[in-house]
Amino acid sequence: MKKPPQTSPEDLDFPANWDRLVEDVQPVEELDLPQEPPLDTGPSLISFLAASWAELVVVLVPCAAALGVVRLLGYRTGAPALPWAALLAGAWWLTAATVLLVVRRGTPGMLLAGLTFADEVPRMRMPLLLVLILVLAASAGLLALLGGRRWLPAAVAGTGLTSNDLVDED
């Protein structure tokens, strides 16, 4: 194999003013550049996962609190008390989620994760929406990753999502 000939910097033909700026360059703000469409700034997948985990926490905390109250009252907290506590926690979550959907356009876990629906959720879609959110919470958020940038509850509700992120993503 033949090597290419070696050249030194002195052998190269550079213009005399190679290190000088050309004076007739327009500043960047004067250039007429085409505007690019804005990127999708919707909530991230981690927000969907956080909302599902927050729903799970919002259901489990009253359940654990009810079991603690039963224990403080001197009763056993075995298998007979668990369905009662779970029913109480489920009823509390269902009531709170329904009220918050109407008033704040989000469930307790969604609000904790900084997500709200962009528009009011139609009343006829609320029961299916609440069941879906409970299923997402029961799956520990794994089903929340389905659908990519379009979260399943937003599709069921028929509205978009808004994010109330407090952290800048700069």
Write the layout of secondary structure elements.
Blueprint: H1 45-72, H2 81-103, H3 108-113, E1 115-117, H4 126-138, H5 152-157, E2 161-163
Antiparallel strand pairs: 1-2
Order of helices and strands: HHHEHHE
Task: Determine the strand fraction and express it as a percent band.
Answer: under 5%
* Order of the strands making up the biggest sheet: 1-2
Structural class: mainly alpha
Stretches with pLDDT under 50, minimum 5 residues: none
Integer-rounded radius of gyration: 29 Å
Provide a count of the helices: 5
Question: Helicity level, as a percent range?
Answer: 40-55%
Query: Averaging pLDDT over every residue, what do you get?
Result: 77
Largest sheet: 2 strands, antiparallel
Q: Termini distance?
A: 51 Å
Shape: elongated
E-strand count? 2
Question: How many domains is the backbone divided into?
Answer: 1
Overview of the structural elements:
This protein has one domain. A two-stranded antiparallel ribbon has the order 1-2. By secondary structure, the protein is mainly alpha-helical. The model has no long low-confidence stretch (mean pLDDT 77).
Quickly list its features.
single chain, two-stranded antiparallel sheet
Describe the structure concisely for a colleague.
The chain is mainly α and about 170 residues long.
